[in-house]
Every structure is written in structure tokens, then in C-alpha cells.
Amino acid sequence: MYDLAVIGGGSGGLAISRRSAYTYGKSVLLIEKGVLGGTCVNNGCIPKKMLYNLAFLHSEVVHLYGKSCINLAWDEFNQKRTKYIKFLNEMYKKRNENDKITTVTGSAIIKNGVIEVNGEEYTASKTVLSMGSYPDVLDCEGKEHLLTSDDFFRFTAVPDSVIIIGTGYIAIETAFVLQECNCKVTLIARGDSVLRSFDTMIQTQVKNTLLSKGIKILEKTAVLKIEKISTGIKLSINKEGVHDTITASKVICAIGRLPNTESIHNDNIKFSDSGFIITDKSFCTTDKDTFAIGDITTSDYMLTPVAIFSGRRLSDYLYSNTTGNIKGLIKSVPTVIFSHPPAGSVGLSENDCMSINNRKVQCEYSGYIGLSPDECISDSVCIKEISLFHYNSIFTAYKNVYKFVYGSVTGLLYGVHVYGYECDEVLQGYSVLVRNQVTYTQMVEYFDLIGGSSYEILSGIFE
Prior knowledge:
Elements: E1 2-7, H1 11-23, E2 28-32, H2 38-43, H3 45-65, H4 74-98, E3 102-105, E4 108-111, E5 114-117, E6 120-122, E7 124-129, E8 133-135, H5 149-152, E9 161-165, H6 169-180, E10 184-188, H7 200-212, E11 216-218, E12 221-229, E13 232-239, E14 242-248, E15 250-253, E16 257-259, E17 290-292, H8 304-320, E18 335-337, E19 343-347, H9 373-376, E20 381-388, E21 400-407, E22 413-419, H10 423-435, H11 440-443, H12 453-462
Parallel strand pairs: 1-2, 1-7, 2-3, 7-17, 9-10, 9-15, 10-11
Antiparallel strand pairs: 4-5, 5-6, 8-16, 12-13, 13-14, 18-19, 19-22, 20-21, 21-22
Helix pairs in contact: 1-8, 3-6
């Protein structure tokens, strides 16, 4: 019997395995059905950021010197990306060996305290489920012709045209990369906006940039049918009551992700209506000594840093008697959309915040991540929005925009929302300020660092 069995070798699973084995000397069994690294390494953060860098460098060269002087070597890029990902896979494998973690490759079936893999049974004092998530696919006629973000990372060439169903961060990031690689892109939105979970400033700025780059957005549109044709894929759609058809070389479905829980056959483990595993503040499931972390527990923050944090803190709680209220520590998590230019948020948006006189504003962060309504209900919101050209504006045609959400009574900083050149790097520092709820008075007493994007933000506040 092992001290700990971990199902899923992604970000969260690797984090809790290493902390438990290396730091606390526990015997750990790690089971992964594919290669180590999970979605982030193989079909998410890592390949996505590499594609973002490719597209970003291409756009900078085109902006400075013109399109005629640059040629995208897609095949060469794919080879280098694959090589780097394989390096990471092997790195995790060797690290597990050094940490004396027993790693088993295969699909696990979990039945009432017993884990079966490849016909062999394993038991452990405690079990952690960290199987991650997978891309959701639209349920309509012809859905077998849809591709997902996983397929996008396997493209051997850039298609002439792509339709992307969805307008969340995965859809938006994919659209910008493909457009920069000279692909004609169309986005299909159920509503009338993009990035609906983000602040309205970010929604507006990103949408305007999409349109300025020639990316078409079909709003209030439903997909009815998908057909394979000689030139690619045909979609039958309903746009505000009007039926139409559109075609493209490929169609990518990016409507969200679902928890990977099909291997769980334990009646004691309960699930939410949306299919996520129900856990308490310590990530313990409704089955004693079985825990769950990462994407299988919530759709609020399907983020690598949250999974890693949860895994490490859970190990500390199990083997070092630290705080059991791990969920209470998960708040003010910065999130970046790698659009072109990037955008990001930390903390509460303007619409999340509070009640302002008689205007009712919903707060969606109660009890789990972020601030609760009780913390800001007596305050009223104060918005400071700054729009200016970046100091390196020669490299970009877009202004940087920063939005701060303060309490006008307390002066507390509730949220920061950024858009523009280098905003992805700037946001990390501001997440610390939001987490610690500094005040406006404190902010204006800070010194700025001239020559960087952070200088712009502080100088804008000072003004």
C-alpha cells in the first residue's frame, strides 16, 4: 500500500506528487494515461505561448518593415515546438525517478478504494484525483467534423480559412494566431460580446482589435448543422432568426472544457449538476480520504497556477498540519488572455463589485475565489481608466488601456484590468496589490520605474 496515489500527471498531480515524496518522504504512486505534463504542457499553456510568440514576432516585423520581408516557416516551428515539449515530458519522468515516485502509464479505473490500471490493482492510504479536463464539443448534427484546440496544435499547415465556434479565451487566442499566419478567421458568438467573464473594458478593446485585424464576428448566432464538403466544412447557422450557411477549410469548437471524470466508479463521490467533483475547503471529496484538485473541481479557474498551488497546499495540509482552508487562500488570481496585444485581469470587475445606491450588481465570487459581497457591500465603486500609448509605441499601433476598480469610500483596490503591449508581464505585480487590498492613497505614494509598462500605469494614476 502506498501513502498516496495520484490519478493524473498534469500540473496539479505532478505538484502534489513531488511535494509529498520529495519534501515529506511519502511513498507516492502517480498514474497517467498519456505523457506527463497534462494539458498545460502538451495541449495548452506551453504550445499556446510558443504560438503566441511566433505570431507576435511576425506582427512586429510586419509592422516595422512590411509583410514582404518575412516568411513563416510553420514546419520548422512545429519541429522545434515538438522537441521542446518532449524535453519537458522527459524532464518530469526523470524528476519522478529521482524523487522515487512510482509512475504507471495507463488508464485508471477507481472503484471504492481500489485503483485498477492495466489489469493490476493498487491501494493507498489517501487518493488524489487530478485528471484535468478536455475540450467540450457542440452537440449538433455533424459534430464529428468539428476540431478542438487539441487538434489545432497538431496542424501541419496553416489552413486558408477557419471558423471558430466560441468567444472565450481559447477561441480568441486561437483566432489571433491564425489571423497573423494569414488565415481568414470567423468567430461565432452566442451572444453579442467576446470574453464575457472579463471586465467590459477588456471585452471592448479585444473585440475592436479582432475587427481591426479583419477577423469576422457573427454575433447572436447558433450552429444548426455541420457538413463535410469537397472544399472543407459547411455550417448551417441561425443568426438572429435568419438561416444561412458559411464555409471554411476547418472548423474549431472552443466552447469550453469539461471535467475528466469518466474513470470514477465510486458511489460515495458526489458531483455538481455541471459534472464537477464536489469538494470541501480542503479539497476532500464526499468520500473520506479521497481528494480532488484542479480542473475536475471547478470551471471558475481552469488555470495551471491554481492546480499547482492546490496540489502543494494539499500536500502540506495532509503531511505537515498546515491550514485546511485551502480554498480560502485561492483569491485574486491573475488571468491573461494572449490576444494581440495581450489583456488580463485580477480581482473584481466593475460589474462584479457591489451594490451602488439602488443599482443592483451581481457578485459571482462568493465563498470560493476572490472577494465576497460582504467585503465590499458597504462601499461604492470608483473607476479610474487610463488610455495612452506605450513608450515603445513604434512597435505597435495600439494604445495600452488600464482600468482600476477602487472603493470610493475605503479607497481599497478591488481589481485591475489591463490591455496592451507587455500587459501580461505587468499584471503579476498588480495581483499582489489586489490580493493585499492596498488603498488609492498608498498607490500614489509609490515610485514608478521609468522605461517600462509599469511606469505608464503608476504615472497614469498619479495624474
